[in-house]
Amino acid sequence: MQIELIDEIIENISAGDFRPRLKALYDLSYFNSEKAFAAAMKSLSDGEPKIRTLAVKSLKKYYHQYQRTITEELIKLLSDPDKETAFAAAEALGEAADPKTAETLLKYLRGSDENLKLYAIIACKKVKSEHIKETLVSIIKDGAEAGDKKTLSAAITAITGNLSPDLLPMLIRLGLEDADARVKASAIETISCLNIDKKALIEIFRPLLTENNARVVANACVALHNAGDDTVFDDINRLLKNDNKWVRASGCYVLGKIANETAFRLLQKYKADGDPEVRINAARSIFAVKTEKAARALIEMASDADNTVKGAVYQLILKFSEAHAFWPVIDLLKSGNKTLAVMAASVLCAIGDDAALPVLKEAFESAPDGQFKKELNKYLRILDDIHNQKKVSARAMATYRETTEDRADDAAGEIREEGVAIPIELLLKPGEEKNFAHIIIEKLFHKSQFLREEAAAELSYIDSKKAVFALCRGLADPVAKVRAVCARSISRHCMKYPELLPEIKEKLLELLYDDYPEAAQHAAMALGFIRDKNTIPALLEILNHESANTRLYATMALGRMADKSVGTPLIELLNHEENKKVRAAIITALGYIGEADYYDTIVKNGFDDKDPHVRASAVEALSKLKIAPETITDVIKKALGDINNRVIANACLALWKMGDLSAMTYVTKLVKSNDKWYRASASYVLGQIASVEATNILLSLKNDQEADVRLNVAKAFGNIKTPKAITALVEMLDDTDDVVKNTAYDAIIKCEDKFAFWPMANYLKSEFEILRFMAAVVLCNIGDPACVPLILEAAAKERNEEVKSEILKYLKLFVHNHPIDSFKDIFSEKYNNQAAAEEGLKLVEQIEVSNEVKVSIYTAAAGSQFKKVASAAAAKLEALKG
């Protein structure tokens, strides 16, 4: 169905009148496929500016998969003659944040074309680069001197992505103290993003409430609220009650930035304000409140008497895409208003909830023949397609998977069991076919402990309710190691299935009492990730448990939640806790919460503790507090005189994170120490710094005579995302120490960053089997379909059958999730390799995808230039159609 429907929509984009073409491009945004992506990319060069603008906006969902392809085209659009298109491209580049665009953007920032410079400023908002930061600072200074307020305002906003506390004086002098309201308002937004003491921010912003410009006052109100100033609602009320419509509109804008229940209640009063400008801002702010009540309130405004307001509300309704709007939109579908009903059908596709199918079908069947019915039918087909795609796609990522169960069953030393009962809920239903995910779920309940551990790890990569439900049951497995892996895996997707969370949280809380430390630790981390405040009372109760380990894991969970309400109980426990691990965990937890008020507690209880682990935790925790760096610098520097290597290392790292360049001096001293533990700690710090200089120093430690140092070097390289680090790790696979060797192996095999693509592609051709295998695994982890032809070519050449089998297992896991994208080049003339094409054709039979997808792939293969491939594909195609 998708192929026919999407082809129809794409055809409508490229031909006909402007408005139907624009609507077709909007409909294309509901699809997430290579074909839809290609059509959107093609539309970037359309002759109609509004088509180009919408195409830019529709590409956001593809940033992760096609970032570089997209940004290369967006860069060109910065020079588009249409201002709206150029602006949209600039904003999109800012969101994509591709570091590879930095060089081109710098050229534009330093160029003489003022329009291009302005768009480049907007585009570099989230691109991290010291060169961009320096250039923006220069533009801010030049803009202030030349009086170019538009550029000055944009540059102040753009520097948010490269913000640091040292910029505060400049932002105050050239931003807040500027007479222009735009500049002042931008400076407020940027300064509010600084990681400095909240009290200091309040002191900066509160005087701005007396300004004679509504926009400035509004931004100041938002900034004060974000800084924790609860009295700001009095100031907001003054804006809302003002006789000037623009001031009231600004008050509504502020409430949209706050977007909580209190803000929503206030906004309700301004839905019927006498001025349309106020009502429009009220509508925008109500949209920002993501609740069902707010969605209903916005829909009510669709009947506004003013066409401008009504048009703005319509546009906002069309932007609904989250679950909170589902029922209000269902009611809108039944409203009897054809225009609103078509909008509702469109929005239901954006939300993508299968529950809308019967309602939409009923609306379609009861509609009279005509254009209205055709529109409903189109959206019914789109939603049905989304539903079908969910059913056939098991979202798995590349991971090791042993398929020969006999090999595992006969493994030496394996614990043999009677097996674990698979829950009835996980058994196949009538008419349901066994798919890839179900095979792994079954393995979680196998009699072999080895296979259950393996399945628990693999299920973390499968995004489905059944997978999460299975992991929840696995938390009660009779074998501790399986419980631990289930606890580690379950946090990855459990938040998407709130109906399962009550049982998951209950089992995780029980697991905190587990005698197996790894199981309890992973349970604590999972609870911290879920961050459900309803579990806080139970966790606080566990703080009084007689077992130090149980108190430790409850503390870890509370710390990960970073909720201020747990601070006092943790401090009370700290005052009488005797166990050093628990004391260290409490101080770490206070650091995660980050309140500046904890400064004295951390210094008093942490820095003078007799245990070095506690002191090291105190240094790290202090550096995480929401407090001005200069307040803690002296205390951190005192820790550099500690006798323990871990404390010194944490102090070095804290100083470096605060921008204190002297940190590297102390790190160098650690590197040159005769004590191996000091050198090992230096390696840890260098891995966290991860700069070019740090990498070069680590290279000098790679061949240290002490294995403990080399071990930390391997871990550090695993944290540095550069080809140089990967090369070093490959060299460390030859280390004489097995632990170091295994650590280097783990660091490589876990890599999933794009920088490693081409280094790994080259290792596919290595003379060493282990490197060829590792390269295939990492390429699948990275997740770029461009790796598929390369791996197939390597598999075709592989002479070792065991290595080939393992490579193809990983490739099968990857291709299963991206079948169309994976095979797009294999059978084309672009990729001229017969052996790879033949391997690819074999692989199609081994993956579980719909016949529709297979038809698409075989059709492409039937057109192959290689007769053997084309003939085999044509035969398979004929069999499918028959």
From TrEMBL:
SMART domains: ARM, EZ_HEAT. One of its GO terms (molecular function) is oxidoreductase activity. Pfam families: HEAT_2, HEAT_PBS. InterPro entries: ARM-like, ARM-type_fold, Armadillo, PBS_lyase_HEAT. This is Clathrin/coatomer adaptor adaptin-like N-terminal domain-containing protein. It comes from Candidatus Wallbacteria bacterium GWC2_49_35. The lineage of its organism: Bacteria, Candidatus Walliibacteriota.
